[in-house]
Amino acid sequence: MTNLFAVIMAGGSGTRFWPASRHKKPKQLLALGKTERPLLTETAERLLPMLPAANIVVVTAAHLANESKSALPVGASVLAEPAARNTAPCVGWATWELLKKDPEALVMVLPSDHVIENPDAFRKTLAIALASAASGVITTIGITPTRPETGYGYIERGAQSTGGAYPALRFVEKPDQKTAEQYIAKGTFLWNAGMFFFRAKDMQVAIRAHLPALAEQLDRMNSSNVQDIFPTCPSVSIDTGVMEKLAQLRVVPGDFGWSDVGSWETAWELGERDAHENVVPAGSITVDAKRNLVKQLGTMHGKLVALVGVEDLVVVDTEDALLVMPRARAQDVRLIVEELKKRAQTGQL
Amino acid sequence: MTNLFAVIMAGGSGTRFWPASRHKKPKQLLALGKTERPLLTETAERLLPMLPAANIVVVTAAHLANESKSALPVGASVLAEPAARNTAPCVGWATWELLKKDPEALVMVLPSDHVIENPDAFRKTLAIALASAASGVITTIGITPTRPETGYGYIERGAQSTGGAYPALRFVEKPDQKTAEQYIAKGTFLWNAGMFFFRAKDMQVAIRAHLPALAEQLDRMNSSNVQDIFPTCPSVSIDTGVMEKLAQLRVVPGDFGWSDVGSWETAWELGERDAHENVVPAGSITVDAKRNLVKQLGTMHGKLVALVGVEDLVVVDTEDALLVMPRARAQDVRLIVEELKKRAQTGQL
Fold this sequence. Notes:
The structure is a homodimer of 349-residue chains. The radius of gyration of chain A is 21 Å and the shape is globular. With 349 residues, chain A is of the alpha/beta class. In chain A, strand 7 and strand 8 (166-172) form a beta hairpin. The model of chain A has no long low-confidence stretch (mean pLDDT 94). Chain A has helices spanning 39-45, 65-70, 87-101, 119-134, 177-186, 200-210, 212-220, 226-229, 238-241, 264-270, 333-342; strands at 4-10, 56-61, 77-81, 106-111, 115-116, 139-143, 154-157, 166-172, 189-199, 250-254, 258-259, 285-287, 293-296, 304-308, 313-317, 321-326. In chain A, helix 3 packs across helix 7 and helix 6 (200-210) packs across helix 7 (212-220). In chain A, the strands form 4 sheets. In chain A, strands 6-9-7-8-10 form a 5-stranded mixed barrel. Chain A has a 3-stranded mixed β-sheet with strand order 13-15-16, covered by helices on one side.
């Protein structure tokens, strides 16, 4: 499919991976999977069996454009957002740009910061979603849930599939525990993973219909005025701004070892573990040490790590900060970030 | 006392403070007390109320001479040993050198790597020991024991003191637990802290009597042949080579908050603790963290340290190594060092 394009959304910020994740080094630029390569790199290269690098567009923040570009296969292009306006302007801008190149563009929109352990199964699911989108119906992928997770949004699917794509009945926000358990029991609820598939022309129609102010700005936008216009676009997600309002939407269930890598705890779960389940740099010395995660960033790479008698810890060593905590407290990284904000040391984030 | 001199023995190596202590950065050059200054610096400056810096001589290894010099008050001098030959040649060399300067030199020999929490009491004890030595009797200080320690040698004292200095009846090696408990119960056993006080001429006589081969080499040694002669001196400690053989030796009991800082555990005990008994760099963020020791060395100084929910850990962060272990495992640093030797990575020690 020469008119197949991928739009990778890589504008994320966030603090759940402090001190590794910072303003200039968000999660997608960190190596949080089994390899030493950034999640963004993994995301792009996972697609190369399906399309040429030149058909990959990464939408990111201006201050991340250079590092994002260097994390990508040669030929991929970068759209640098002058301001963060959530995902609808991001998807819209990419859609308008692709239509200039190819009026028949078939587009997949993917997050840049997820881990996928089974890329073959992933690409098979993409093919089903793309076939559905090629027929003129905007389509999403929903992850087959493995637990009653309360941290994700869900998509309820209908009963009858069209070539593997089901009607998407509704989006639901993060449920409470009891509701999540009901969703799992019902078997027709899937996790919303933020992946969307469409013909560019169909998305343009949808944005015109549901976000007309955004469409108008995208019509006027070009390379010489994007700095002025983009920051004035409405800040709205593609989910609530478009997807939830569509008369027809399809969802393809996917089961390909997906994780959104929500915390250091998840990074440990996904990492390459040694015989004692430590995820540590090569060459580390571990004595009676079990189930620890040690991450080195930047110039800390290559430092010898020695763990003696410690278990279930997260240790993150960057050039300007060192974090030590139990894996079970991974969510409490936010307490550190809050304290730093309190200290008005925002430069350290 | 213008003819009062201090000889500080600073040739130590050792691996108990890995990864901070290395070949080029032994314990005495580390800040292991309450301040950010090396133990050697603290040792020298503690003496300045008693003598001018010019009367301080530091004996160290050749490869440590420059860093030792820069850790000392201006005016102190350094004798750089071409090879490590234990403490008798060290004390002997300094004695012979001081006699060239001042035939009436009164000398105190002190270790460079101990912590003394009460310097006033320490100096009062020194004055008693020096008065005893000035009368022509070689004198030592014995630390009043606070526990049945099996890691130190003991000195048994006699019953009758001469101005605070008791006859030293015998040196005993590190005892077993039961024997150590008997020593404490008896009340006449003191810890050998390696501090010696003498008129230089008395020590010269003692070395001639008990280590004649060493005395002969020291007689021949001068600045142009020290490189050749010193390495051939007998490798023997001043304790076994001289002190234990003296017909008359006195010991002054001392109680001045002494510690030989034997491990990272001791460094935590001696450090400046916060409200939750953490010994951490200024500005650290601690959340539910208790009784931890975090040490930064070299360029790691100034890195933000964040501890969440961890207790009783030792964390040592140097430019080329990061160590994490429970305080209770401090002795097991040797396992790391052994592993490194096994890897033939001796350059990293």
